[in-house]
Amino acid sequence: MKNESVLEEIVIDLYRNKLFKIGEYRLTSGKISPYYIDLRILPSYYDIYSRIIDISISKLKPLKFDIVVGIESAGIIHASFIACRTRKPVGYVRKKPKQHGTRRLVEGIVTGKKVLVVDDVATTGGSLEHAVNAVRSEGGTVEKAFVFIDRQEGARERLRRLGVELVSLMNTWFIINVLVKHRIIDEQTYYMIKNYLDRETHG
C-alpha cells in the first residue's frame, strides 16, 4: 500500500507539472490521442524523478539482470540512473546503426549477458521490440523490459509474443483513476480517455 500511495502522489505531480497532459496529440504511430505523456523532461524535476527512480529500484529488486540497456533517446538517461543505483553496467540501443566507425546498433557489451531493456513509456511496443531484437542479435538474453508508464496500446502483448515480460510502474488506467479520485479531472475527461483506451485495448 505504501508504494501505491507514493505512486498516487507521483501521478498528481506529473499532472501538475504538465508531464501528463490532456488534449489532442498526434503520436509517433500517427494516431490521435486525448492525452500525452511527456517524460523527456522528467529528469528536470529532481524531486519527482528521484521518487520514481526509488520506487523503480524497489520494483526491479527481485529481477535478475547483468546489464541495463536503454533505448535511444529517452531511455538512455533512465537506464543510466537505474544502472548506477543497481551497480550494473549500462548500454543503449540506437534507433539506427551508427553510420561511421564501428557502425554499432548496440552500444555496450551484451553478449552472453542477461539484459534489462529500459524505456520511459510503452505504447505499441515497436521501439521495445527493435531493442530486444538488436540485443538478441548481439548474443544477449532479454526476458524483461521496464518502463515507467504503459499506455496499454499493445506493447505488453507484442513483447509477450517475443517471450519478454513488460514490467511497468503504472499504466494509463491507474493514472486516470487517481486523477478522477482526487477530482483533478472531471468525469467527462475520465470517460473520454477511458473510451480511447477501450478502443485501443479491444480494437
TrEMBL record:
Provide the coiled-coil residue spans: none
Q: Which Gene3D superfamilies match?
A: 3.40.50.2020
Cite the entry's keywords alphabetically.
Glycosyltransferase, Magnesium, Pyrimidine biosynthesis, Transferase
Q: Which residues form the Phosphoribosyltransferase domain?
A: 51-158
Q: Which residues bind 5-phospho-alpha-D-ribose 1-diphosphate?
A: R94, K95, K98, H100, D119, D120, V121, A122, T123, T124, G125, G126, S127
Q: Which SUPFAM superfamilies match?
A: PRTase-like
Essential cofactor(s): Mg(2+)
BP terms from Gene Ontology: 'de novo' UMP biosynthetic process; pyrimidine nucleobase biosynthetic process
TM stretches of this protein: none
Q: State the pathway, as annotated in the record.
A: Pyrimidine metabolism; UMP biosynthesis via de novo pathway; UMP from orotate: step 1/2
Q: Which InterPro entries match?
A: OPRT, Or_phspho_trans_dom, PRTase-like, PRTase_dom
Molecular function GO labels: magnesium ion binding; orotate phosphoribosyltransferase activity
The UniProt record gives the binding positions of orotate as: T123, R151
| Biological function | Catalyzes the transfer of a ribosyl phosphate group from 5-phosphoribose 1-diphosphate to orotate, leading to the formation of orotidine monophosphate (OMP).
Assembly: Homodimer.
Which named protein is this?
Orotate phosphoribosyltransferase
Species of origin: Staphylothermus hellenicus (strain DSM 12710 / JCM 10830 / BK20S6-10-b1 / P8)
Q: List the taxonomic lineage.
A: Archaea, Thermoproteota, Thermoprotei, Desulfurococcales, Desulfurococcaceae
Q: Which gene encodes it?
A: pyrE
